[in-house]
Amino acid sequence: MKIAVSKRIRQFGTLRAIGGEKGQLYAIVTTEVLLLCIGGIPAGMLLGMLSAEGILSAAAGMLSPDIFLVNDAAQLKRLITENSGGKGLFLALSAVITLGFALIAALPAARLAANVPPVVAISHTDTRVRRRGRKAKRIRSFERRYWKSWNITAAISASEAAGLSTVFR
Question: How far, in Å, CA of 128 to CA of 5, rounded?
Answer without folding.
Answer: 11
